[in-house]
Amino acid sequence: MDQSRQAVHQAVKPTFSELFTPKLVTVWREGYRLPHFKADVIAGLTVAIVALPLSMAIAIASGVTPERGLYTSIVGGFIISALGGSRFQIGGPAGAFIVLVAATVARVGLDGLLLATMMAGVFLIAIGYLRLGTYIKFIPYPVTVGFTAGIAVIIFSGQIVELFGLTLPGREPGPFVPKLIALGEAAGTINLAATVVAALTIATIAVLKRWRPKWPAMLIAIGLASVVVALLALPAETIGTRYGGIPRSLQWPGMPPVSFGRMLDVLPDAIAFALLGAIESLLSAVVADGMTGRRHRSNCELVAQGFANVASALFGGICATGTIARTATNVRAGAHGPVSGMVHSGILLVLMLVAAPLASYIPLAALAGVLAVVCWNMVEKQAFATLLRASRGDALVLMATFLIVVFRDLTEGIVVGFALGSILFIDRMAKSVAVEADLAQDDVADSVGGARTYDSAEASDADTVVYRISGAFFFGAASAVGSVLDRIADQRRNFVLDCSAVPLFDSTAANVIESAAHKAGRAGVRFIISGASPQIRRMLINHGVKPPLVTYAASIRDARGQLAGRQEAEQPSLND
């Protein structure tokens, strides 16, 4: 039986080429025609219009110059679409990285950021080829909701200076509470012009989203704000006044300074980039799957993300990952496949080459307004409220992740949230394991997690007690199950433990059974295990639970037959 199951498993197990073939190749093999190309061009143009202001806004919020956001969307976005495992993924700089990137730039400078981004790319390539992408999906939902909401709060707090044109006496503090204190102290320096520009941007986006949802609201809002500032000569800072504009070409590729000591210095940043990039990109791919009914290749997607980050850093870009909002826009725009993402990158390159001088007129307050809208959209408000009402456990995981991200650190928030979510899962799984006993009529049934009635004619007599375990028997349930089994020696001459409803046994469970079997042996109780699958039987035998300590039966009826002497107590082999 084991061999036949293994043969079936091997037959359906995907090959290396199936796991890592880019979706671009898949789409091409399916037959890529002119109508498909037209659909991808339209979708790519739509996404490029959305990505243009976002890429610059995210770069500025991350503590680097605006063109580096464009480099990321052009180079990283192209590679993610060309090599990725999702048909619709759009890559580029993401709001989730703003806090991490800004902290890295402040600590190790731009060269350190580029090195950390390259190292993160190498880590992502390794994660993908080691096929670890499946495990990244195990992040609990309350953790992702709390993490995203926490990032949105931090990003918004970082935009308050630009939204109101505040003047801080020194560098803006990184931690949340000191930042709020510094902003409060600078409240008297509000620039009315910047405030009006930010409000105009946010209002324009809100109105267009409601009345003309298909129009590029963010780009229109940025253009309107730029025209107002230029025509009225408002004293609001622009990209030109702060950064001198953006270049009209891509930066030539080059390696940042590399040394062993420098690599050790940025290693924590690289690990954080890789983990966040993996989570963000796979989450975005899952969203695209839900909208289209397609299935992405998670490990292939991570490999593409890795190469994209290495290339982005070589061209002076920042961290690249899959972006949920732009990917959703791509799907809604009617994209057919990855070509739309490649077109989006190409259009951004053309816009940078042709219209770069116009970027100098973009007010920083308008870009801050765009990010304020992004932060509002990042918070899954309905999901947040639902999780708070769902259960105390989910609410605890959600709030712990959210508060730690806001007041402590992003990585700590994920780690603590994941740990709490795992403990909550173990507790729920342990409570789902039931141990039911069918005793004589004058006895009271012991139960853990539930109750079940057996046919007394088949399962019980004056000398025999039958227990059934149902559910995954693992370390979390070991104490509860063990407390029931410990009483068997005082009850009957024969004990049958039915495991037919147990899908999973671990070493702790096997140790509990071994202890119960030894106790039964010392009390002269005959111990029979019925219904155990070959895998569970092998686990038990490896832990010493074997004849003559116990005997095995295929079912409760067979166990009763052994006890009655109606059939030989023949032991099934491990290959049954």
From TrEMBL:
Keywords: Membrane, Transmembrane, Transmembrane helix. Residues 463-563 form the STAS domain. GO terms for cellular component: membrane. It is found in: Membrane. It is a multi-pass membrane protein. GO terms for biological process: transmembrane transport. The chain crosses the membrane at residues 41-62, 69-90, 96-126, 138-160, 180-208, 215-234, 270-290, 302-325, 345-374, 395-426, 465-485. This is Sulfate permease-like transporter, MFS superfamily.
